[in-house]
Specification:
heterodimer; A: alpha/beta; Flavocytochrome C3, Chain A, domain 1; Methane Monooxygenase Hydroxylase, Chain G, domain 1; five-stranded parallel beta sheet; five-stranded mixed beta sheet; 36% helix; B: alpha+beta; Ubiquitin-like (UB roll); Fumarate Reductase Iron-sulfur Protein, Chain B, domain 2; 2 domains; 10 helices; elongated
Chain lengths: 597, 255
């Protein structure tokens, strides 16, 4: 066995988006020797792409807002499948986490009287999103990055973890490779925080970057941890659809929060036809009322354009399917006819720039063409609400890789607050756990040897499969068979195809040498991509109902029995299998909050 | 799909030990950007072609390169703005050491970032901070920076002068200093450091950095020049110096 580099820490955090940075900052503040390991350069993680804002009931714009209303909105948006305690802690702690960033230098947009301005978003009763134009994620990642850099946290950039290490039942570290040199590196640590984000690269039309290959989901599962809610993949209603090369790039919900509306090909505001029973009481049913809402919050109800994302995405898909879509297969998102150009370029400078540069569309003059794009996975590692601990001792998870917080559908803005609240908790309790362990744990050396041997196999083959070809087929399969609308027949077909791809991936070949070799990196990423794709299809098959982001054509209604369970994925002899676990019952006082109108 | 054509991309291939340009003939569809075409080459011709990228939407600043000699984000460079009848050259940023192909070692920027003294906020009043929107807009402009390092790449102080790097933070970092200096809540003073160790004086405001900034930040006009004025103000202006002394004595602080 070739020698490899070894580092020892109390806590290692895998991933350097908002959750990872916030976890590392907290672990270090607790005195733990802490490292961040990330696939890209520091400051490039997916959080940078978040546009519209971070949800927190600060009550600066609407004093009547508070954590209870935020909790209610989150649970209703998640179709009551959320872990209530996660949702409660989230709503209670988000304001403190958002204001704390000001002490670290963040400059949120301000109200007239100099406080934090809040913006409207889908599913939130009050204007609740603290933001910086439409580049909120960039502000957050930069502030967290500067904070982390000032705190003596070791950062291993462009370093990919391929396996977690264990000492018996406990986590003992992680093993990976430097992308630059291809050399292997071992991290010994009693506590590992997964903050790896999501799985969006399993889909063809996605707002997610190459990094989103479900690494943390797969690493956790392979190490014996439970995943929950994997059937719930959020398709953001508004991604770009034209030109084809930009298909899937995100268009912020802030466009609708700031007055933009959805129209079909003939100009009709079709959302008024698509208001579900659950939201009828709080949604405007005439254009006049919807328009009035922007200036009269007390006397008018919210426009249906601002329903939760699952509802809007489904409505758009139906509209296109029934032949009322635009020439490029989307619908129109129109802010040009509703707001003056100055307002649009001031509130949405990134969107203006993006459409101008990439699509030759001036959004102050013409409507945008948009359609749903894979955006977020609600499912993830099952975690303890107080500590963010996963079901394997020593493993913690925060942000998108953790499951339960958002239930069947996440509200916009709740992801940035989630990663601050539970990133902090994961770092805090990861450090505490590491302290309690005291002695170093040791992974057996054959664990590392086996992982390393397996990782270089793509170079041993003189001929075999092109990993890019396999990835493309996987993305096509997930897009067409495990997409927004699902059936048993298609899901079974998807599992068949994924099985074949899994087999073919064992023949994936890498050309050249180990120096910064994207083909080889992809061959390795395919393992986690295939695993998360398979478990998504398995979970979608198990949930025989339509709820939130899961729409089953063969089970079009919500089934109260499925409202009482999470679909759980576990492994047996290395193979994933599906199970169900009852939800924690919602305490009466919180139930009353949720049922309040 | 409307319009496909074939173009030649002349890509620099190699590593720290050397390399050269290689031609790749490749199909291009309308609406595509340079990064799309690089990805097609990866998927079909050269799987080990090293390219750094993330968001493909001009928001992360990973995919910087020199396209036909111009420093650009490859994800925001539309193919139809380039003359497709001639080979299109794509080369790595020249100011940073090559790792492989289009990927360079940009650790210089991260090392310089570590040397920036952290934000030092005023104490938080019980009712929270209040700031007027107009007082934070300049700093918000600097915060648009996506750290693509194109400004560092074109800065002639370091582009062909490796020896200047240890004592020159470069435009990206000057913007970071400016952001702290102009932050309404920050109490630090980094002017001496800027002049003595970060090489602010070496910048002779040719504005190359501002020209290539994909975020259109007015790096020179709004960042570097005001910083230079503040430094001069601190160092040489006797009236300002006297005024500060008196003020400090009144507030009982030592310099």
């Amino acid at each position: 066995m070739a020698d490899h580099e070894v580092h020892e820490f109390d806590v290692i955090v895998i991933g350097a988006g908002g959750a990872g940075l916030r976890a590392a900052i907290e672990a270090r503040a607790q005195g733990a020797k802490t490292a961040i390991v990330c696939k890209s350069l520091l400051g490039k993680a997916h959080t940078v792409m978040a546009e519209g804002g971070v949800a927190a009931a600060l009550g600066t714009v609407y004093p009547e807002d508070n954590w209870k209303v935020h909790f209610r909105d989150t649970m209703r948006g998640g179709k009551m499948l959320n872990n209530w305690r996660l949702a409660q802690i989230h709503a209670q702690e988000a304001p403190e986490r958002v204001l704390e960033l000001e002490e670290w230098g963040a400059l949120w947009d301000r109200t007239e009287d100099g406080r934090v301005l809040q913006r409207d978003f889908g599913g939130h009763r009050y204007a609740r999103l603290a933001h910086v134009g439409d580049r909120t994620g960039l502000e957050m990642i930069r502030i967290l990055q500067h904070k982390a850099v000032s705190m003596d946290i070791a950062v291993f950039m462009e370093c990919t973890i391929v396996r977690l290490l264990k000492d018996g039942d406990r986590i003992a570290g992680a093993f990976g490779y430097w992308r630059e040199s291809g050399k292997f590196v071992e991290f010994k640590a009693p506590a590992v925080v997964l903050a790896t984000g999501g799985i969006g690269k399993a889909y063809k039309i996605t707002s997610n970057s190459w990094e989103y290959t479900g690494d943390g989901h797969a690493l956790g599962l392979w190490a014996g941890a439970d995943l929950i809610d994997m059937e719930f993949v959020q398709f953001h209603p508004t991604g770009m659809v034209w030109p084809p090369s930009v298909m899937g790039i995100l268009v912020t919900e802030g466009v609708r929060g700031d007055g933009g509306i959805l129209r079909n090909e003939s100009g009709e505001r079709f959302m008024f036809r698509c208001i579900p029973e659950m939201f009828k009481a709080e949604t405007a049913d005439t254009e006049e009322e919807a328009d009035r809402w922007f200036t009269d919050r007390k006397g008018a109800r919210r426009p249906p354009d601002l329903l939760p994302r699952d509802e809007v995405a489904r409505a758009i898909v139906a509209e296109i399917k029934e032949g009322r879509g635009t020439p490029h297969g989307g619908v129109y998102l129109d802010i040009a006819s509703r707001r003056d150009p100055d307002y649009i370029t001031r509130r949405l400078p990134g969107m203006y720039h993006q459409f101008k540069e990439l699509a030759d569309v001036d959004i102050t003059k013409e409507p945008m063409e948009i359609g749903p794009t894979c955006h977020y996975v609600m499912g993830g590692l099952k975690v303890d609400a107080e500590t963010a601990a996963a079901t394997v001792p020593g493993l913690f998870a925060a942000g998108e890789v953790a499951g339960g917080m958002h239930g069947a559908n996440r509200l916009g803005g709740n992801s940035l607050s989630d990663l601050l609240v539970f990133g902090r908790r994961a770092g805090l309790h990861g450090a505490g756990y590491a302290r309690s362990i005291g002695a170093r744990l040791e992974a057996t050396s054959d664990q590392c040897e086996e992982i390393a041997r397996d990782a270089v196999r793509p170079f041993d083959r003189s001929e075999g499969e092109n990993p890019y070809g396999i990835q493309k087929e996987l993305q096509d399969t997930m897009q067409t068979l495990v997409g927004i609308i699902r059936t048993e027949e298609e899901l079974l077909k998807a599992l068949d195809r994924l099985g074949e791809l899994k087999e073919r991936a064992t023949h994936a070949v890498a050309e050249g040498n180990r120096l910064y070799n994207p083909g080889w990196h992809l061959a390795l990423d395919l393992k986690s991509l295939l695993t998360v794709s398979e478990v998504t299809a398995l979970a979608a098959l198990e949930r025989k109902e339509s709820r939130g982001a899961q729409t089953r054509d063969d089970y079009p209604k919500m089934d109260p029995e499925f409202g009482k369970v999470n679909v759980v994925i576990r492994t047996k002899d290395g193979e994933p299998y599906v199970d169900q676990a009852p939800l924690e019952p919602l305490p009466q006082d919180l139930r009353e909050l949720v049922e309040a109108t | 799909m409307a319009g496909t054509s074939t173009v030649t991309l002349r890509i620099w291939r190699g590593d720290a030990t050397g390399g050269g340009f290689e031609d790749h003939e490749v199909e291009v569809s309308s609406g595509e950007v340079v990064l799309d075409v690089l990805h097609r080459i990866q998927a079909t011709q050269a799987p080990d072609l090293a390219v750094r990228w993330n968001c493909k939407a001009g928001r992360c600043g990973s995919c910087s390169a020199e396209v036909n000699g111009m420093p650009r984000l490859t994800c925001m460079t539309r193919m139809n703005i380039l003359d497709q009848t001639e080979p299109i050259t794509v080369a790595p940023m020249r100011t940073f050491p090559i790792i492989k192909d289009l990927v360079t070692n940009v650790s210089f920027n991260y090392e310089m970032a570590k040397r920036v003294p952290a934000f030092q906020p005023k104490p938080k009043p019980p009712e929270g901070y209040r700031m007027a929107q107009q007082d934070i807009e300049r700093v918000q402009e600097f915060r648009k920076c996506i750290e693509c390092f194109l400004c560092q790449n074109v800065c002639h102080v370091i582009r062909d002068h490796e020896e200047n790097k240890p004592q020159f933070a470069g435009p990206r970092l000057f913007i970071r200093y400016a952001e702290l200096e102009m932050h309404p809540l920050d109490t630090g003073d980094r002017r001496e450091l800027l002049q003595a160790q970060m090489g602010l004086g070496l910048c002779n405001i040719t504005k190359c950095c501002s020209e290539v900034c994909p975020e259109e930040i007015h790096i020179t006009d709004n960042g570097i020049i005001p910083l230079k004025e503040r430094v001069v103000d601190r160092r040489y202006d006797p009236i300002a110096w006297l005024g500060r002394k008196i003020k400090m004595r009144r507030s009982g602080r030592a310099e």
